[in-house]
Design goal:
The chain is mostly helical and 195 residues long. Helices cover 73% and strands 0% of the residues. It starts with 5 loop residues before the first helix and ends with a helix.
């Protein structure tokens, strides 16, 4: 049995991400990936059982990178406003460093495979953000609302700004997120989440 080559495995991950962003999940196959990575299709099966295993593995690697950056310097004892400000900055930093990975995760998010990835994401984020949110509610900094409402108000505006940044807005095709725009939007979000 051949051993794993971490450089080759990294190349396979990068090529898979690039292909899925460019062609979508429906256009993705192990054969196409092997050709793009200039390796034998049999080599892929050293690293992954099948297409689904590869996609889940790549997704979880991207999630781990995203978590590491999103939660850098974050701890549940921060005030709600400080914690949100840090998370917004970190998430924006992730996007700026890894725009292709962000687009890849958007593809995954709207696929049947996402349920398997979502369970891990929810658990990992929940372990850190759960205590932060509960503490903010207990301190009167955050209105108690269902998770879906909280997330929609707390983070969807940031991701919409990121989308406008990468694709342009309806009015301004050259829209770019600045620190001032981000902080103004966050201020509005924090007001909306206060009890």
């Amino acid at each position: 049995m051949r051993t794993r080559d971490t450089d080759k495995e990294g190349l396979v991950r990068r090529k898979a991400i690039e292909m899925i962003v460019k062609e979508g999940l429906d256009g993705f196959s192990m054969q196409k990936l092997a050709k793009a990575a200039n390796i034998s299709p049999a080599t892929l099966y050293i690293y992954y059982k099948d297409r689904e295993d590869l996609l889940i593995s790549v997704s979880l690697t991207v999630v781990d990178e995203m978590l590491a950056i999103s939660l850098q310097d974050f701890h549940p004892e921060l005030s709600f406003a400080e914690g949100m400000r840090l998370q917004w900055r970190n998430r924006l930093e992730y996007f700026r460093r890894y725009p292709v990975e962000m687009q890849f995760m958007e593809q995954v998010r709207y696929s049947p495979m996402y349920e398997k990835v979502h369970e891990t994401v929810s658990h990992k984020f929940g372990d850190v953000l759960g205590p932060f949110v509960h503490r903010a509610i207990a301190n009167g900094e955050l209105k108690p609302v269902p998770f879906e409402v909280y997330w929609s108000v707390a983070f969807a505006p940031l991701y919409q700004l990121i989308k406008f940044h990468s694709q342009g807005s309806h009015k301004d095709r050259n829209f770019k997120i600045t620190e001032e725009i981000m902080l103004t939007t966050l201020e509005m979000v924090l007001k909306g989440l206060k009890p």
